[in-house]
Amino acid sequence: MKIAITGGAGFIGSALVRYLLANTDHHLLNIDALTYSGNLHSLPDAADHPRYQFSQTNICDAEKLATLFATFRPNAIMHLAAESHVDRSIDGAGAFIQTNMVGTFTLLQCALEYWRALDSTEAQSFRFQHISTDEVYGDLAPDAAPFTEQAPYAPSSPYAASKAAADHLVRAWHRTHGLPVLLSNCSNNYGPYHFPEKLIPHIILNALAARPLPLYGDGKQVRDWLYVDDHATALYRVLTQGKPGQTYNIGGNAQQTNLQVVEAICALLEELAPEKPTSLAHYRDLIEFVADRPGHDRRYAIDAGKIAAELGWTPAHSFQQGLRKTVRWYLQNKPWWRAVLSGNYRLERLGTGPAKSATQEA
Ligand code: NAD
Ligand code: DAU
C-alpha cells in the first residue's frame, strides 16, 4: 500500500511511521505542517528510508493536498494532524478550529475528489482513517461504565469540541458521499517522543530538573493510559481490518488518577535516577497542587471491547511496563528533549534538518 499520513511528525504520528516502516512494506508520505509539536527528530531512521517521503504541508492547503494525492497516489489516508493540547485550546481556540475542523474538512474534500477519480477496484479498497479522542464523550461519572462507541458526544474543552466537529464531518462524508471512512477514539497516550507540555513528560523532565510537579486541582482526575506503540498497532489493525463507516474505541484498560501517575513516575525516578541535582530528599517532595484547569473533565475511561472482539486487538503493555519504558527512554534520550526545551528543534527545520523533502515543493 501507499499510505499518506497527516501529522506524522507528531507524538502518535511518528510512532505510527516508525511502526509501519519497521513492520510493513508500505510506502509512506508524511504530510505535516511542522507546528510547534511536529519534530522530525522523532523520526531518526525515516529521512533516508527508501519507503518514506516527507512534505511540509498544511492540511488547510487544498491545492497542495490535491497535488500530493495526484503524485503519490495513496491507497489510504491516516489523518492524525491536529492541535492536540487542551490547555492551549483554553488559551486560544483559533488554531484548533482551523486545523481540527477546517483542516479536516479540507482533507476530506480533497480525499473525496481523489477517491471519485479512482477506478472501481482502487476505490473499493481505498480508506480514509480519522484518528480521534475519547474527550469527545466528555466527563464520565466516577461509578459510570467506560465509554462505548454508543456514548453520546458531550465535549467540554475547545479542543474536544473541535475534535467532535471533525468526527461529525467524517461521518457525514461517509453517509452523504459514500467515502469509505474509519474512525477511532482513543484514550490518553504516553511514551517516547511525547512533547513535554503533556502530563507525563512534563512531570519526568520537571522532576529531573528539581522543579515543581504541578497537579491541577486535587489531582484525583482519572485518565485511561495507553502506551503509544500499542496505539500504532491498533490503528494499523483498524486500517487493514476495520469495516468502512465503523468507529472503534481504543484504550489501555489502565485507569489512574493523576496523583497516582505522578507518584509512579517519582518512584521510578528514585530507582532509575537516584542521583538528584540538588539536596532534594525525594522526587515526590516536588509535588504541588495548583489551580485547576477550567472545565476540567473528572474522568475518562474506554471500553475497548469492540476492537478486541471484532479485530482481535488488545494492548501489549500494562501501565507499569509502559511507564517504566517511558521513564527509561527520557533518561536515555536527553538530546531529543533538550533540543525541544531549548527550541533548537524548531530552528533546524528552517535549515538543514534531517528530513528528506522529496515532495516539499509539490
Ligand atoms: P501532536 O500535537 O504531538 O502532533 C500533531 C502533529 O500534527 C504535529 O506533527 C503537527 O506539526 C501536525 N499539525 C498540526 N497542525 C497541522 C496542520 N494544520 N497541517 C498539517 N500538520 C499539522 O499530537 P498527538 O498527540 O500525536 O495526536 C495525534 C492525533 O491523535 C490528534 O488528532 C489527536 O487529537 C489524537 N489523539 C491524541 C491522543 C493523545 O493522548 N495524545 C489521544 C487520542 C487521540
Ligand atoms: O484523552 C485523550 C486526550 O489525552 C487527547 O485527545 C489529547 O490530545 C491529549 O493531550 C490528552 O489530553 P489530557 O488533557 O487528558 O492530557 P494532559 O497530558 O494535558 O493532562 C492529563 C491530565 O493531567 C489532565 O487531567 C490534566 C492533568 N495535568 C496536566 C498537566 C500538563 C496536571 O494535573 N498537571 C499538568 O501539568
Give a concise summary.
By secondary structure, this protein is of the alpha/beta class. The protein has helices at residues 11-23, 62-72, 86-91, 94-116, 120-125, 158-177, 199-208, 228-241, 258-272, 305-311, 319-332, 334-342, 344-350, and strands at 2-6, 27-32, 52-56, 76-79, 127-133, 181-186, 188-190, 213-216, 222-227, 247-250, 255-257, 287-290. The strands form three sheets. Strands 3-2-1-4-5-6-10 form a seven-stranded parallel β-sheet, with helices on both faces. The protein has a three-stranded mixed β-sheet with strand order 7-9-11. A two-stranded parallel sheet has the order 8-12.
Summarize the helix and strand pattern as letters. Answer: EHEEHEHHHEHEEHEEHEEHEHHHH
Low-confidence stretches: 350-362
* Cα radius of gyration in angstroms: 20 Å
Strand elements, count: 12
Decide which structural class fits the backbone.
alpha/beta
Please name the CATH architecture.
3-Layer(aba) Sandwich
The biggest sheet amounts to:
7 strands, parallel
Provide the CATH topology. Answer: Rossmann fold
Average the pLDDT over all residues and give the rounded result: 95
What percentage of the residues does DSSP assign to strands (E)? 15-25%
- Fraction of residues in helix: 40-55%
